[in-house]
Amino acid sequence: MTDPTVTRLFGGPGSGKTTALLDRVEGILEDDDADVRDVLVVSYTRAAAAEIRERLAERLDISPRSLQGNVCTMHAKAYELLDLSRGDVVGDDDKEAFCEEYGVEFEDQHGGAGRRTARSTTIGNKIIATSQWLQRTERDVADWYDVPFQWNVEEVRLPPEEDPNAQQGNKYTPTWPSDDDRIDIPETIRAWRGYKGDHDLVGFADMLERVAQRSLVPNVDYLIIDEFQDITTLQYNVFEEWTP
Questions:
Q1: Who has greater pLDDT, 195 or 136?
Q2: What is the dihedral of CA 156, 161, 166, 167, to 10 degrees?
Q3: Does residue 152 have a pLDDT over 60?
Q4: Are 37 and 72 members of one domain?
Q5: Nearest-angstrom CA–CA distance, 159 and 233
Q6: pTM: predicted TM-score of the whole model, two decimal places
Q7: Which residue, among 115, 123, 75, has the nearest Cα to 98 in the 3D structure?
Q8: Which own/partner pairs from 165-169 qualify as long-range (CB within 8 Å, at least 24 positions apart)?
Q9: In this structure, is residue 10 part of a structural domain?
Q10: CATH number of domain containing 67
Q11: Parallel, antiparallel, or unpaired for β 39-43 and 71-73?
């Protein structure tokens, strides 16, 4: 197998990177005598992937649906490679069941008149989100206090040894509610991960970990990643597995 050729495209917002990306796909299909199934275009969000899919389908005069498996997020491709079904993936019902069993508060993230506000108000959501962030950045559970989320400072408070502004809360780390009842964050994160394992559930970060660990590779010859600068450490590991 020959070494892969890597091409990087740099440009500021609005400079036409996505258009150039689509031009590149068209060029591959025309010049390299490739089929669209030989190309995988990965975008960072489902919305971005859908937009690229629509634009590419219009250029190729085909249905966007036919590009579903070739223009998608990395998680969607991991879902496919792992041959998962919807019941295998962690949902809000699973999160709520764990939190109820463990004794921490949880809110459906789509509550509050449809706004995704729960992460800034409940300890259970913070635990689960922090667990995912640690996986995405490949940090140990002991590094939970590094999490850079913006939390509601009126709802959380850190002990003074962690935060000199403890009485004002801290915008980075969700730990204790304002009544200062302590909860063991690493222990709760490990309990959540154990719960997923006991119930054969897979989260989005778990999908990428499994794909990287098992060296599962899409059956394509060309890999194109949109907004590459935004990928996480975990996604970069998958990229390295896929590149050859």
A1: 195
A2: 110
A3: no
A4: yes
A5: 30
A6: 0.79
A7: 123
A8: none
A9: no
A10: 3.40.50.300
A11: parallel
